[in-house]
Write a structure and sequence with these properties.
The chain is α/β, with parallel strands linked by helices. It is built from 4 helices and 5 strands. It has one domain. The strands form 2 sheets. It has a 3-stranded mixed β-sheet, with helices on one face. Helix 1 crosses helix 3 and helix 2 crosses helix 3. It is globular and about 45 Å long. The C terminus is likely disordered.
Length: about 140
């Protein structure tokens, strides 16, 4: 599993690890251990959102960050904030991804992105009217 850095939510994950796994930009490989993790987090997602649910399940199961970062059959890597920014890092090189803390309302989000220099009106024309391909498979592969 590879995650961009979060901020401090959920607090118990931040207290345990000193960081948070952000679900705004992440990669999960389709392994049995990942499927089991997602299955455990799914019932919580509707109550608290995907990021708190995933972090809380991992923290409750004792995941830790170290050189031998193994949690059963799972390992997690946290991408460097200087290149995958959730919070601004003005003295760092230009990041690969900027995922600022933004409002949930689309118009407010666009206003913030415009203010940060991350949105142009012409960018709206680049967004396809429908997904080019499915983001998630319809069914899990047989393992």
């Amino acid at each position: 599993m590879v995650f961009s850095p979060g901020t401090i939510q959920p607090l118990e994950a931040h207290a345990a690890w000193g960081n948070v796994l952000c679900t705004g930009f992440f990669l999960l490989r389709p392994t049995p251990a990942v499927f089991e993790l997602v299955d455990a987090a799914l019932p919580l997602i509707g109550k608290m959102g995907d990021q708190p649910a995933l972090n809380r399940v991992l923290a409750a199961r004792g995941m830790r960050f170290s050189d031998d970062n193994l949690y059963s059959m799972l390992s997690a890597a946290l991408l460097p904030n200087r290149l995958y920014q959730r919070l601004p890092e003005p003295d760092e090189p230009e990041p690969f991804i900027i995922h600022p803390i933004a409002p949930k309302v689309e118009a407010d989000k666009i206003a913030l992105f415009t203010e940060l220099g991350l949105w142009r009106k012409s960018a709206q024309a680049l967004v396809p009217s429908r997904p080019l391909r499915p983001v998630f498979p319809q069914a899990r592969p047989q393992l």
